[in-house]
Amino acid sequence: MQVGAGVEEDEVQAVAGAEVVEVQSSAGGNKRPRVPRPNAKRQKNFIPDEDVIVVSAWLNVSKDPVQGANQSHSSFWRRIYDYYETHKKSFASRTESSLMHRWMYILENVNKYCACYDAIERRNQSGKTIHDKVILFLISVILEDIHVDI
After folding, report:
1. How far is Cα of residue 18 from the mean position of the Cα atoms in its chain?
2. Residue 6 pLDDT more than 60?
3. 103 and 59 in contact (C-beta within 8 Å)?
4. Interval 94-120: pLDDT, tens
5. Residue 105: what pLDDT?
6. Does residue 55 register a pLDDT over 90?
7. What is the pLDDT at residue 39?
8. What is the largest CA-CA distance in the chain?
9. 8-12, 25-29, 38-42, 53-57: lowest mean pLDDT where?
10. DSSP states of 97-148
């Protein structure tokens, strides 16, 4: 059976070193071979201590006065990975890619928090404590979500 572009199924098996699984394509009834990834195991979730190390690594590497902004993407994340590996306290093995994705997740949530905090501060309500401002903001957000005008 021909796999595609002049490649035989036996060649795909020999190159991948794994068994070929027939998978139905989304376009129709044509079947295409799929070679399972050898290291497709999902790692354990990051723990808060690891998050602190990831953030610390990013800060130390990005604010390094010697290297500064003159780093390539790969060398930047390699240095973050090296920092993480030397400072981690757990036995979890992480890749550069997993550290980068975790950093992006942390950054996204910090940006959301900062946006909410700025929205609260921009209201400039006098005579209210920050606690009161947060409660009023959360109530207005919830009411906006259910489309109730106040």
Report:
1. 29
2. no
3. no
4. 899 999 999 999 999 999 989 988 888
5. 95
6. yes
7. 61
8. 78
9. 8-12
10. HHHHHHHHHHHHHHHHHHHHHHHHHHT--TT--HHHHHHHHHHHHHHHHTT-
CB 83, CB 61: distance < 8 Å: yes
Sign, CA dihedral 91-93-98-100, equals: positive
Domain regions of the chain by residue span: 2-34, 48-122
Q: How confident is the model at residue 35 (pLDDT cuts 50, 70, 90)?
A: low
Residue 126 has φ and ψ, to the nearest 5°, of: -80, 150
Angle 130-145/96-122 helices, nearest 10 degrees? 100
Backbone angles phi, psi at 102, to 5 degrees: -65, -40
Which SS3 state, helix, strand or coil, does residue 21 take?
strand
Locate 130 and state its tokens. 């920050």
Residues 6+ apart with CB under 8 A from 10: none
pLDDT value of position 32: 52
**CA 149 centroid distance within chain:** 36
100 beta partners? none
Count of beta carbons in the 10 Å neighbourhood of residue 76: 18
